[in-house]
Design brief:
The complex is a heterotrimer of chains A (about 280), B (about 280) and C (about 290). Chain A is mainly alpha-helical and about 280 residues long. Chain A contains twelve helices and no strands. The chains are: A mainly alpha (about 280), B alpha/beta (about 280), C mainly alpha (about 290). The complex binds adenosine-5'-triphosphate and magnesium ion.
């Protein structure tokens, strides 16, 4: 029983800041995994890193202008997504993603410098403050989660088609470019919801890790999507427990736990391939 | 162009092109194309590189607007008739780890362009099964697409194109990466399905020989112009000489056809390159 | 004008900044052309962030930051290269390595703030400034630059072949994996030294920006490398001059950040290259073989 007490001390679930963390963390993880599924499918990991990072500059701008940081965040993540869509060509998505990110961060450094003072609320957005959120934040993120759920459900089939077989999809009336823009806006939406809660760095881990692992475990798109959401939620739960027990930053645990899931996924795929190599083709 | 077939009326034709011309990069890629295809016929599109074969497919798919002329599918504008046209792309090489089974790929052809999740359930599943059975792919229906062979993938793409009950299916060089036997298999399969289901097939290829047994007519493209007719009508020295604009010989050996350009090696089309 | 340049060079922080900035700009510019050619912008950017974690580790261990940057950067680069072969797999593997290293970085940063009770150190690592480089770092940075450029010179032909048409190169006996790993080594060195002296932000800007502009203006890889180095040099020196000048600007005469100016210049170069392509229709570099 001693171990149980150590792992799950009573405050873990009863402290009100922890209850908020559980609620918001679960919602953010589910939302990130949902969008992350398409990120991984499209090989657009860089975008998932760049959009939350770029949105950080918007928060710095909001501090300078005396506005709401979340609004600044939302504006910059949408603008950077649209910038990537506008500049990107089919061949060099990476370059333009990097350059749009640089533009945003360059502006961010200017905003911070002009703001003069060290702005802790901006740095907090880099690393997140999941145990420092109030009940209102929880409602806001739940609202964004619903919005993103609706958007994903609406986009699911055409986005899936355009991601796996863009030529056929385009020929059948699913324009590649329009889907690219919608996808980037979906990432921006996820970033806006996640960054105030878990920070820009962690938002990236939650978007990429669970979905990347799920791609190895799931055989159909629906399965992979479901598994991604499960892994995401499980990761944030484990991380909250570890972080509460040890007092170390949640971000570290989320990155580590999702990386472990990814490693398990690769191992699984590897073993499966060996089995197939022996001629035991599962039919 | 030389349309060696009697002109058909709109009522019994699935595809109508009239006076179509396309300019790309300041050059006429296609000009004066008139053609009309019947339901259920199998048309092979042959021509040297750069003749405008892919451009022609893009026009029929509505991805490219012709600069002149009209394109109609079943008497309607192509953009309104998108659901009536099936398409098999030239290349498709999914990642081995893509979480997509053969049946998921085919299902996208049914309703992939619609918004939202699919709620079809059993009906949808039965349709997918049926399409898989047309191309004899049921036994690998649950395999990840990334681990299938080129021929197996090709069959799935055909099923994906056919599942939405199109009136016409366009295939862009489906034989390019296949060995001789698979080429024969794909052609026979497409021919059979088209025949049974009354679907018009437009198949682009560099080698007409695998098509000889199933092809109803041939569309020969060269220098942006086209000749349409049966093989015996079109693949003749005089017709092709006029199309190419210089002397061309047609040689028949062992039931295979060889088109040989004159002095101008550039436009030499290799009928049988395997020999 | 001349007077301005004289006063600029006389300022104690400017000359070293110009010198080390030029070194970094040239190395990044040259390496960047291959990054763009191979479509490895994400890896190039990720290495900057990964090195930051190494620097934090070095700080905690009492080692010079340079070795933290380069050591962890090289390890990260090898992990990225080793984990992914196909494009999508490599992209995801890069993301996972980056995510993990950022997580570890967050942990180390936490330890740093616990120990020093001040946030200055971490912030300096995250947003390194070219005006505050330690002069003793000049020699090792120069040596690392030389190493990266020599490695590239050695790899040049097989690297170009393997980047432009991997299948054909492999058929001709080019060891794709070996070439990829060695290039990753050169890339990690170039990125980490610039992350150290100019910050992770500028390291990506100097790596990708000038190279992406250069390959739109010239077809030849050698010429593109030279042009890219030149564009990087231009952005760095003009950026430093403007940052120096900005101490006379509002608000508050505190100066505008040099990274802002350099990024702005790099982006201007890129947009010019997009708007004024040498030959709009001809793509600058040979097409990469798609996985199709
Ligand atoms: N977007 C474009 N801009 C300018 N020229 C183009 C464009 N697309 C195609 N072309 C030109 O139009 C001509 C026909 O191209 P198309 O792709 O239709 O040929 P094709 O018959 O399919 O050739 P292949 O057998 O090589 O596939 C070619 O000369 C090509 O260079
Ligand atoms: Mg073609």
């Amino acid at each position: 029983m001693g171990l149980w007490q150590t792992l799950f001390p009573s405050g873990l679930f009863t402290a009100s800041f922890m209850q908020n963390a559980w609620l918001a963390g679960t919602a953010v993880a589910a939302l990130s995994a949902l969008v992350g599924f398409f990120v991984v499918l499209r090989g657009a990991t860089f975008v998932a890193h760049a959009v939350p990072r770029a949105s950080f500059a918007g928060a710095a701008g909001a501090v300078l202008a005396g506005g709401d940081t979340v609004l600044g965040l939302a504006i910059f993540s949408a603008l950077s997504a649209l910038g990537m869509a506008a500049l990107g060509t089919r061949r060099d998505q990476g370059q333009t993603t990097a350059l749009v990110l640089m533009a945003a961060l360059g502006l961010g450094s200017l905003f911070l410098a002009l703001g003069g003072a060290y702005a802790p609320e901006v740095y907090a957005l880099l690393f997140g403050q999941i145990v420092g959120i109030g009940r209102m934040d929880v409602y806001a993120i739940l609202g964004l989660l619903l919005l993103a759920l609706a958007a994903t459900a609406l986009l699911y089939r055409p986005l899936l088609w355009s991601s796996v077989a863009p030529d056929v999809a385009e020929a059948k009336g699913v324009p590649r470019r329009r889907m690219e823009i919608l996808f980037l806006l979906l990432v921006a939406l996820a970033a806006t919801a996640a960054v105030p809660i878990v920070g820009a760095l962690l938002s990236f881990s939650l978007m990429v890790g669970p979905a990347a692992a799920a791609a190895y475990f799931g055989r159909s798109p629906g399965q992979a999507l479901g598994i991604a959401v499960l892994i995401g939620i499980l990761s944030i739960w484990l991380s909250l427990v570890f972080a509460y027990d040890t007092g170390l930053p949640v971000g570290f645990f989320v990155a580590a736990v999702t990386a472990v899931f990814y490693g398990l996924g690769r191992l699984w795929a590897h073993l499966w391939q060996i089995e197939r190599g022996r001629g035991q083709v599962p039919v | 162009m030389r349309n060696l077939d009697p002109v058909r009326t709109h009522e019994d034709s699935v595809l109508d092109l009239q006076g179509v011309a396309v300019h790309l990069g300041g050059r006429a890629v296609l000009h004066g194309i008139d053609l009309s295809l019947r339901p259920g016929e199998f048309v092979g599109v042959i021509g040297p590189n750069g003749a405008g074969k892919t451009t022609l497919l893009k026009i029929i798919l509505g991805l490219l607007r012709p600069d002149e002329g009209t394109v109609q599918v079943a008497g309607r504008d192509v953009r309104a008739a998108r659901s009536l046209v099936g398409y098999v792309p030239q290349s498709f090489a999914p990642d081995p780890d893509l979480p997509l089974r053969a049946r998921d790929l085919v299902a996208l052809g049914l309703d992939g362009a619609r918004w939202g999740f699919s709620l079809g359930g059993a009906r949808r599943r039965a349709k997918v099964e049926e399409a898989l059975s047309w191309v004899d792919a049921l036994h690998y229906a649950d395999q990840p697409v990334g681990r299938l062979s080129g021929g197996e993938l090709q069959r799935l793409l055909v099923a994906q194109a056919l599942i939405s009950d199109p009136r016409i299916v366009l295939l862009d060089e489906p034989l390019a990466n296949l060995d001789l036997r698979s080429q024969g298999d794909v052609v026979a399969l497409v021919g059979r399905v088209a025949h049974v289901r009354g679907v018009t097939v437009v198949l682009v290829t560099h080698d007409m020989n695998p098509l000889l047994s199933v092809m109803d007519r041939i569309l020969y493209l060269a220098r942006g112009q086209a000749a349409l007719g049966t093989v015996d009508e079109v693949v003749r020295g005089d017709v092709l000489t006029q199309l190419y604009g210089h002397h061309v010989d047609v040689v028949r050996v062992h039931g295979r056809i060889l088109v040989v350009g004159g002095a101008d090696a550039e436009s030499l089309t290799c009928g049988t390159c395997d020999g | 004008m001349l007077g301005f340049i004289e006063s600029l060079l006389a300022a104690p922080t400017v000359a070293p900044a110009l010198l080390i900035g030029s070194l970094v700009a040239v190395t990044s510019g040259v390496v960047g052309v291959f990054v763009v050619l191979r479509g490895q912008s994400f890896a190039g950017h990720a290495l900057g962030d990964i090195g930051t974690t190494g620097a934090a580790a070095a700080y905690l261990g009492g080692l010079p930051a340079l070795y933290g940057f380069v050591g962890v950067g090289v390890l990260g680069g090898l992990a990225i290269e080793g984990l992914g072969e196909r494009a999508r797999e490599r992209d995801v593997a890069t993301g996972i390595v980056l995510s993990l290293m950022l997580g570890v970085g967050a942990l180390l940063l936490y330890f740093m703030t616990q120990r020093t009770n001040a946030t200055g150190g971490p912030v300096a690592i995250l947003f390194g400034s070219i005006f505050t480089v330690d002069p003793s770092i000049m020699l090792p940075v120069a040596l690392f630059s030389l190493l990266a450029l020599l490695l590239l010179a050695f790899l040049y032909r097989p690297l170009v072949f393997a980047s432009v048409s991997p299948q054909a190169a492999q058929a001709k006996g080019v060891p794709l994996q070996g070439v990829g790993l060695l290039f990753m080594l050169a890339l990690a060195i170039a990125v980490e030294e610039s992350a150290l002296v100019a910050g992770a932000l500028l390291s990506t800007a100097l790596l990708i920006g000038p190279a992406a502009s250069a390959v739109r203006w010239t077809r030849q890889i050698g010429a593109a490398a030279a042009l890219s180095a030149l564009l990087g040099l231009l952005a760095v020196s003009v950026g430093i001059a403007l940052a120096y000048q900005s101490y006379f600007w509002p608000p508050g005469h505190r100066g505008w950040p040099v990274s802002f100016f350099i990024v702005l210049l790099v982006l201007t170069e890129y947009l010019l290259a997009r708007l004024l392509p040498a030959r709009a229709a001809r793509r600058v570099l040979p097409r990469r073989e798609e996985a199709a």
